[in-house]
Amino acid sequence: MPAPSPNPGIEPLGCRPGCAACCIEPSISSPMPGLPNGKPAGVPCPHLDAALRCLLFGQAERPAVCSGLQPSFEMCGTTREHAMLFLRRLELETSPGDYSRA
């Protein structure tokens, strides 16, 4: 069962198998093993396994931004494509840098 949502009115979801949109589309500014400067937007995290699961899940090295992410229907929708597009747009709207892969 997912943890209660920290945002009232937004129901949390569990991860969709084979999705990993949240491990691909957003930039991550926190350092992690192999990425001392974080992960750029639109690049798959190198800590994904072949089934697109996080190899750092449950480990201290996993960035807090990853651990704290609460999947929601608004973000994930009903398809991986919805989640990828939602997160890409969010990255574009919040990025101070040039993210031209739109």
Q: How would you sum up this structure, described in words?
A:
This protein is mainly α and 102 residues long. The chain has one domain. Helix content is 24%, strand content 0%. The longest helix has 15 residues. The N terminus is likely disordered.
Summed up, what is this model?
With 102 residues, the chain is an all-alpha fold. It contains 3 helices and no strands.
Features:
mainly alpha, globular, 102 residues, single chain
Overall tally of domains? 1
Number of strands: 0
Individual helix count: 3
Portion in strands:
under 5%
What integer is the average pLDDT?
Answer: 86
* Helical content (DSSP H or I, runs of 4+): 10-25%
SSE order, one letter for each helix or strand: HHH
Structural class, judged by helices and strands? Answer: mainly alpha
Q: Main β-sheet: number of strands, strand sense, barrel status?
A: none
**Principal-axis shape:** globular
Q: Whole-Å distance between the termini?
A: 34 Å
Low-confidence segments = 1-6
Instruction: Provide the gyration radius in Å.
Output: 13 Å
Helices and strands in order:
Elements: H1 64-68, H2 73-76, H3 80-94
